[in-house]
Write a structure and sequence with these properties.
The chain has 485 residues and is mostly helical. 73% of the residues lie in helices and 2% in strands.
Length: 485
């Protein structure tokens, strides 16, 4: 039942200028602009000033390699921390932007010192960016609870895609107008970080324990009003009978890591991103072509920007459609499988259309958008379904993200090596073959829709029963001590 108390009655630190949902929307939009540091444009810029494809592949892979190591620890930290997650989100956004913007000081030529600068800042960027996703997910779950988490996360993801579109358009315009010195397009990253820091202060902190996946007592609806989370009469009676409840105990790492559903999700995401991440780089190379000196043509800039915009716009539409289908009861499994199935079709079409013109190649990004939109939406839903009640929500978000990042990192590195040695077509056929593996794996995943509330409620009942038994034992011991005296 929804109460009529607004949020500030329980969280006086929360400003009243923005509704909680709108505040999350603005933060997600800004972080979407921050994105991955406009890696595609960074790759084009570095090749244009004399770097070879192998060095660019290593530079772009370092962020992913760092993140795949850090993300589980970042998620675990976000679960356990007593620091306000909003503060850390702001710090992570600023550090990510500063690291990504370091490319502006790189000089023309293939200089060893510049390699060290980019490699180092990519490591820093990977560390800081690893905390952004878990912080946003934890704050969303802490504020809106399990009942409204899906709707708010869908809004967050959708507006993150919109932010990415805006960043790509702005960066593309600046890069095209300033060609060949396109480094000023990376100023978009700094502006995005500034916006994120401004809007983060309007986010509610919520219930920190619920933010790590424990059952809470109250949460907000989409309008900022408080509602009591569903509990049966016996649970309420135990809550009222037991005073001074101890903090709930999280499940062991082994319990959550060894869950076969977690393993399926991890390896599915790994192979999907292993097959997928390099495809956009290859697409940009096929569309743009090179100048006589080997540098990318000016025309590649609007084409790559258009590819990103088309994919992100389609992702936003796919996110909206996936949210609506989920609302009407469509399960996680068919939506995730639909997203996975777009990748082999996309790879095959690029190969068949490689000489058909840029319009045909660019249109394949619609499939990228559908796949990325559906898989990106369902991923946090699946993790929340699997882990809610365990207290390990963010560590599994980090673990799965690490597997996804490992796949993407290997894709960028090995894909570009394959392009150098065997050509674009061979690289794409390799992605096609790999893209069939995640479809086979995820076919083994059981449907998780509807399990989140059941799991959380059972865990919470067990916790209350343990607390009730502990208080009973403490009372008996106290009575016995009095008798002895």
């Amino acid at each position: 039942m929804t109460t009529q108390r607004p949020l500030h009655d329980i969280d006086p630190s929360h400003p009243l200028l923005l509704s909680p949902k709108f505040a999350f929307l603005l933060v997600s939009f800004s972080l979407g602009e921050l994105g991955d540091g406009l890696n595609i444009f960074q790759g084009i810029y570095l090749v244009g000033i004399g770097w070879n494809e192998g060095s660019v592949g290593i530079a772009l892979s370092l962020m992913g390699l760092t993140a795949l190591v850090i993300q589980p620890f970042a998620g675990d930290w976000v679960d356990k921390t007593t620091i306000d997650r909003r503060i850390f989100l702001s710090f992570a956004a600023i550090l990510t932007a500063l690291s990504a913007s370091a490319i502006m000081i790189v000089q023309e030529g293939n200089q060893h010192e510049d390699h060290l600068i980019i490699f180092f800042t990519k490591v820093i960027e990977g560390v800081s960016a690893s905390f952004i996703g878990p912080c946003v997910a934890a704050l969303t779950l802490a504020s809106f609870g399990p009942n409204h988490f899906d709707a708010i996360m869908a809004s967050n993801i959708l507006w993150g895609h919109v932010g990415s579109v805006v960043a790509a358009v702005l960066a593309g315009i600046v890069a095209y107008l300033s060609y060949p010195d396109i480094k000023f397009c990376f100023l978009v990253i700094g502006a995005a970080a500034l916006l994120a820091v401004i809007f983060v202060q309007y986010l509610p902190q919520g219930d920190p324990l619920m933010g790590r996946g424990f059952q809470g007592k109250v949460a907000m609806d989409e309008y900022g009003h408080l509602e009591r989370l569903e509990s049966d009469e016996s649970t309420v009676a135990v809550e009222n009978a037991v005073e001074n409840l101890d903090p709930p105990k999280a499940a062991t790492y082994w319990e959550v890591f060894s869950d076969y559903k977690t393993a399926i999700l991890c390896f599915t995401g790994f192979f999907f991103h292993f097959a997928n991440a390099n495809v956009l780089l290859v697409l940009g190379e096929l569309m743009g072509g090179d100048e006589e000196d080997g540098s990318p043509r000016r025309s590649v800039i609007p084409l790559v920007a258009g590819a990103i915009v088309l994919a992100q716009t389609t992702m936003a539409a796919a996110t909206w459609a996936g949210d609506r289908l989920t609302f009407f009861g469509v399960g996680r499994k068919p939506l995730f499988l639909a997203g996975l199935a777009t990748l082999p079709l996309r790879c095959a079409l690029i190969v068949f259309w490689k000489d058909a013109g840029d319009f045909y190649l660019l249109s394949t990004q619609i499939l990228d958008g559908i796949g990325g939109g559906l898989c990106g939406l369902i991923h946090p839903y699946l993790v929340a379904d699997i882990t809610f009640g365990s207290g390990r929500f963010n560590v599994i978000m980090g673990l799965t993200a690490s597997f996804f990042g490992l796949g993407a990192t290997l894709s960028n590195f090995m894909g570009q090596m394959a392009v150098e040695k065997f050509g674009h077509v061979t690289s794409l056929w390799g992605s096609f073959g790999l893209s069939l593996i995640p479809i086979i794996l995820f076919a083994c995943m059981p449907e998780t829709l509807g399990q989140r509330g059941v799991n959380g409620h059972l865990q919470y009942q067990q916790y209350l029963q343990q607390q009730q038994q502990q208080r009973k034992q403490e009372g008996e011991q106290a009575d016995y001590a009095k008798m002895v005296e």
